[in-house]
Specification:
Chain lengths: ~270, ~550, ~200
Amino acid sequence: MLNKNFYLILIISAVFGISFWIGFNVNLLPVEASINAPIYDELFKILFIIGLIIFIGMSIAVIYSLFKFRKRKDQYGDGIALEGNLSLEIVWTIIPSIIVLIIGLYSYNIYDRMGGMKELNHSHEMMTSNTEKIWAGISQASNNEVASNNLSVEVSAMQFAFLFNYPKGEFISGELHVPVDHKVSMKMESKDVIHAFWVPEFRIKQDIIPGQPTILNFTPTKVGKYPIICAELCGPYHGGMRASIIVEEESDYKDWFNKNTKTEVSL
Amino acid sequence: MTISIDSKDSNTKSLQPKGWLRYFSFSLDHKVIGIQYLICGFLFYLIGGTLASAIRIELASPMSDFMPRDVYNQVLTLHGTIMIFLWIVPVVNGAFGNYLIPFYVGARDMAFPRLNAVAFWLIPPSGLMLVASYFVEGAAQAGWTAYPPLSITTPQSGQIIWIMSVLLLGGSSIFGGINFIATIIKLRRPGLKLMQLPMYCWAMLGTSLLVVLSTPVLAGTLILLSFDIVAHTGFFNPVLGGNVVVYQHLFWFYSHPAVYIMVLPAFGLVSEILPVHSRKPLFGYTTMVFSIMGIVVLGLVVWAHHMFTSGTPPWMRLFFTIATAFIAVPTGIKFFNWVATLWGGKISINSAMLFSCGFIINFVFGGITGVALAQVPFDIHVHDTYFVVAHFHYIVYGGTVFIIFSSIYHWFPKVTGKLMNEKLGILHFAITFIGFNLCFAPQHWLGLNGMPRRVAEYDPQFQFVNQISSVGALLMAISTIPFLVNIFLSIKNGKDSGDNPWNALTPEWLTSSPPPVENWEGEAPLVEEPYGYGNPISQEN
Amino acid sequence: MTTLDSSKEIKNNKSEASEHHEDFRMFGLITFLIADGMTFAGFFAAYLTYKAVNPLPDGAIYELELPIPTLNTILLLVSSATFHKAGKALLKNKNSDTQKWLIVTALLGITFLICQLFEYFNLPFGLTDNLFASTFYALTGFHGLHVTLGTLMILIISWQTRPKEGRITNQNMFPLEAVELYWHFVDGIWVILFIILYLL
Ligand code: HEA
Ligand code: HEA
Ligand code: CUA
Ligand SMILES: [Cu+2]
């Protein structure tokens, strides 16, 4: 009897060990380039580990039963007439409920830290008239509010391109240039069908919807060039609907901004 | 209230053609209709699979080179629609439901045999219409979700035909659902209590409730969408003041329950198969029933988890996160109970058993990625990427399709009186299992790293992983060969199975195989313990 | 609408099924009506959402006159009562009375439809004018379709209840009861529709 329990504990700790090891050592995600990304990856790690424990545990249970309880050549008759076991069933109702509840609370926390729970209309007073309704989106993560550094961009999407309007410079660009470590807030609206703005390295996505402005705020943390991908089927060239976001040092950004502003103004 | 079980239109039935021809004519016999559903569904599976193969060929290289981009969109739309509405839903509900439910309730036929036949015969024409729309002006190309305004602005004839055929298929599904509810509740043999029914009946009852409550909403939505297309109303057209997100709510109000319509019957089938082949009673009958009903209720209130990045306000995102994640609880109960059913049994390792166990493993994987997707912050990154594609193929293919195969191996002797070849069956399982995992496991990585779904061209850095996935798809296509060979060989010269090769206790095995037209020669037996396997515990010790 | 002919289908079964099947044919019909009700529920949900979040463009007219729809409500309510009368009469084996009451019911239904059409022609907006107009026509039109179907079925069963040769007797009441239930259902939907569309 003791022996049996010993093996059980051994196996369970092995499952936990393996899952934690994989969870901490296998990286399935692209580089982290915004302040959302590390928060996201934290959640991912937890979900990954819990998922692995459940999956490996269940698989072992199934495969073990297939080996251990397979019918041998000389065996006849049935297995034991066990129709259920209420306490066991209660256990495996309660444990998943607790896990699910914990995951839910934790992801609420993550979502809040990403800025998801902030009121949408308020974070945008800067660029639009207050009366315009914002339908959805994500505001900025709360621990990094640098209002004065706020860069506003208006995004419009159409089949099959993104256009970025810099209201302060009064020019439109096909590439999104942003200074590193500054909060960027975008108001997005589509001209035809639904598109979506996705930057995998930032772990953010928001649909761009005709007739319903949405917002998306983020703060890039790593200099570089990242793809902006349209993630909502929008027609034949949906796969080609991409743009780039260029995160650069503030001085480089200023140069770029001034260059563009000048040419536009002189027109 | 008394219900007599004989006296069903026997004279109509004796006029029906005999032999294989009856499977191709208008028949009222529930067994014939069940087989008709299965054959028809399988043919559409081959078509849908061919389209899937075309998708995987296109995606073997990062450029859009195998077919034009708009054709690619048509192919993936048809693939999704055919697989869901013409393969999974009709087979797992219509085929097995029609064949088994009357046996399980001790009846000679379904409650409304004529409605039943009509429901089936709606399917082939609407399916053919859907496939044929490709040759008109191009098929629909807005995805199986047909989100407006895209579905309003793409070529119209394809989209309208798509709407028509989904409406007809929905109608067929509603008729089926009404029939199942009436049969299970009203047509039970005297003396048979609800809590003595085999689990598949409960699963079908739950499924049919979902069908009856949610499919009509899809019908209404698609009618509105077709008005937008042909009459230029503006329900979902923002140019005319409409609201595109309302469509998404209405659509997912049906299409989330639809995923349980695709999987609950599979849960029922696996509950029939596991006890027989592990020679043990089904573990925890009562909790199984409650968890089915729990899934039905929860399933109706989680639809917006498909819209986390859409125009949904924060509170709505959170509510639907919590509701969705809780579906893991009743589902988990079922899975733990199945493992407990295996535990301590005398398991025969045959094709039916292997496919069922493969189902458990695959579904748990897909379910776990589902729970992850249910978390808003997680979903915001992976929504509309290959991660989602991987999630649902793990469930629909690794789950439901595995169970369809398992059920075919299990009930083949019932239908034909012949045994299937186990060696070929196990070969089929091995290739399917390996090919399936090879195809869809890598797609999780693709999604996390930046490959959106529904694209014909992609970043070259993803080429290698996509090719692995395509090889997996090739293996899945190959795996249909041993299966089809097995079916034809076994029908032609399979070993005689006898009436009850598995020594099963559920009612369908208590008559001859294949069963007579009226199901039982005499009275229908009263099966109070469909899972009464096992030696008493005392004996074992 | 594909779902509509199922009530007919259920009725057709009657010819084969013997008396004791009555019970679950009614059950099937109720299930069908629940399904049908869900279609309306979807429409109502869409309408209410539009009303809550999609303001109409300036200058859009969506004033609804109340007299005709109120009259229509009364017509339908009365027709439910007359249908009930018909059933009562059949129970007492007075087939000619049943027939009379059924025809009265059908006439009320037809009047309803005429009034509805009259309203359509006098409305200041057309189907595609704005969101409200479209939803209005979709909802009332879909309901009107149900009334049309119901009226046709009433005419059919009133023919079938004719004394002597008629198929429907108090031994075989199912067709009449089925259509009656359907008619009450359509009536109930109208009341909800009237409240939501005209009064709210
Ligand atoms: C049969 C089909 C089926 C089934 C059963 C499911 C089941 C589930 N699905 Fe899935 N899903 C689809 C088919 C299905 N899905 C499809 C087709 C899509 C894409 C549609 C499209 O956009 O085209 C989709 C998309 C989809 C999304 C949207 C993703 C996106 O587009 O961004 C989400 C998000 O919440 C989701 C969640 C879930 C969850 C939580 C379950 C749960 O029911 C799973 C529950 C099961 C388990 C969890 C495993 C067993 C449980 C245990 C072993 C207990 C212990 C576990 C824990 C404590 C976690 N699914
Ligand atoms: C519901 C069931 C279901 C099933 C069973 C499958 C099965 C498969 N699916 Fe699919 N799939 C969906 C439902 C399903 N799918 C849905 C709903 C979508 C979303 C669509 C959308 O975005 O709108 C989708 C989308 C989808 C995509 C994403 C497309 C995109 O977003 O760009 C991919 C890509 O790999 C894919 C692949 C496959 C593969 C390889 C199989 C394989 O498992 C298929 C294996 C079967 C075969 C290979 C058949 C074998 C037969 C032959 C090869 C033919 C021989 C011919 C004769 C003998 C005549 N599917
Ligand atoms: Cu724009 Cu896809
Ligand atoms: Cu869902």
